[in-house]
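retry 2 of 3: previous attempt timed out while embedding adenosine-5'-diphosphate. Reduced batch size to 1 and resubmitted. Inputs unchanged:
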Amino acid sequence: MIAIPIYNTVAIPGSHIYFKGEVFADIAGRDAKTKDEVVLLFARENIQEQVLSQDLFFPIGALGRVTETDINGYVEVKVESRVDVETIMVDDENHMEIIFGHRPDIEDLEPEKEKEELKKIKADIIKTVTRFQWGNMVRGFISKWESFGEVATSIAHRLLISNEDKYAILETDSVSHRVELLCTAIYEFLEMTKISNEAEEAQESDNRKAYREAAIKKQMEYLQKELDEMHPENISDIRKLEIRIEEAQMNETAKEEALKVLGRMKMEGNHSNEYGMLYDYLDFLTSLKWKKARQRNIDLNEAQETLESEHYGLKKAKQRIIQQIAVMNLNKKQSGSILLFVGAPGTGKTSIGQSIAKALKREYVRVSLGGVRDEADIRGHRRTYIGAMPGRIMDGIKKSGVSNPVMVLDEIDKLSSSYNGDPASALLEVLDPEQNSTFTDHYMNVPYDLSQVLFVCTANSIDTIPEPLLNRMEVIPFSGYTATEKVQIAKKHLLPKAMKSMGISEDLLKVNEETIRTIISDYTAEAGVRGLKKRLNALCRVAAVKLVKGEKKALRISPKKLREYLDAKPMRHDNVLENTRPGIVTGLAWTRAGGEILFIETLFTKGSGKTIVTGQLGDVMKESVQIAITLVKSMFPESTNLFKENDLHIHIPQGAVPKDGPSAGITLTTALASLVRQKVAKPDYAMTGEVSLRGGVMPIGGLPEKLMAAVRAGVKTVFIPEENVEDLEEVAKEVKDKLEIIPVKEVGQVLERLEIS
Ligand code: ADP
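retry 2 succeeded.
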């Protein structure tokens, strides 16, 4: 008998299997004829286009009969019973002949029970399909099923069970068990259909809900906006913050945090303690400018003009600033190297920072670091603290109102560290271009990009700046002004500004150059011009009173009137001494306020070899005293007895500011030499330099300031360490012209020149 392979199909007695006419003919080797009997063989796998053999098939097949040869091109085979496959023969054309035996069913299903089961499963199938719109169309068709064979015919191809499981239904001898297996597969299928249908529905309703929510929100926003516009005074804090957060263009992390805090504010309600804190936080966050500023090219000539117009002199600093702007233009960046302006107060460090901002057409903000001891001052307090605040850097950014200000970090040398962390290391992070794009203030707790900020730092001295911080910066010295420069600054800047601020026009007040010179020499003692500015302001105030009272129509201030106008006595200056005696020598010192001269006085009194040191002394200077004594003893061995039999008193009179130690070594040695040799050192000679035990003169700092002070005090000749000769480049010509400068290698050279050796 002809055998036809089937795969992945449920074939039970009573069910129908359909084959395409030509497929059937191809497999059978002839066309189908009604009433032909065929054996249906269950393939173990999909055997399309394989050479057929017995082991490809399961051992139980089904005997069927062709009932229709052409239903729309299909052949219908009705399954009638089951067979045991015995032998399969395959011919050259891949057609199969089969020898088989009948395999009876075990008829253990009561007809009543079968009816009942059939009814139940039909009802369930109908219930499921009517969930779908097309369900009603097939309902009538289902209700006509009269056997499980018909159920299998219609539903078998949809069942979600494997080929093996489908075969298992046929393989089962017990009819009731067979029906049971079929029903289980059908119920599972119905459940699956239900679940996926429910999931689809749920998804649909979720989507619908989301659409609805979005639409409602939009409407609410629109209505709220209308209301806000009608009554701007009624907009609630929360609403205002909400608008500000939306408009602030924050980075994602910041926005997320802001919305989170806003959510908490809503929950807290405005009577809670925390509400105010949260409000302050969001107020701060939204007042910052988050949007990056556009980089713009700066015209160098214009920038140069701006710098020139605001500050007199300062050639080197201005030159360096212009270079920086040029590099920023080329790099298309808003920041560059960090410049550190170092010099005495009033030398224009901070104000030139302001001019840089003007030249760059950017905002300026000054952050004072004087007295900062805690890390939190730089990086803010965590918000968990009561009264927590942002750090000074972020506060500065807020004040500037932009994301790319020129930020002057003032007095960076006055940072100190405490048990509350090291502010310098926090500052390192601020200034480090690798890290500062995500600078996170503790208060803000979200990163802010500082990479667009141009930092400029100022300091009086580099001595106290921590090394790692100093390494990040480029030091530009502001060595103070000569008297001539000060006159120019007063004439061109300070006086006109003072007069303008008090509303005094040029024709009402005349201050001639000589008067200005006198103010500089007799009423100020400084490297910068801060004192001068104060004096000129005071002068203008007094003049304003006189003019307003009508005492005079116009005023002309001569040096003589200064005492009255400035309401102060001329200062007593440390000028070179006129009369002197052995043991006194003029030194030059550097202080934070600029340069100063100092007199080292030494005296022997009868005693027992004690050394008494008085005056303002740093520890280092005390060491210098020891070195000087040893040195003098070795240079003048005959003096040893003098030191033994007398007490030595060393005094450094005057000086409110501690003077630096090492550079007084040469002066101490010379004073002691002068004392033991009882030879006067010429008073208009001054000196600076450290000495070694071998008598070598070593280099010192602050040469420009010291030489300026020497000129101010009337010194004619100065000895400087030979290694400092290079620094003379930094010294104004006017100063160099007024001094004889003698570089020395050894202290002996000084003694020789002063004729005390
Ligand atoms: P610093 O920061 O070095 O202590 P400031 O920048 O505060 O000094 O300067 C003090 C005052 O002196 C400011 O009013 C400044 O305008 C003025 N000033 C300093 N140097 C100059 C200068 N070269 N030209 C014009 N004004 C100057």
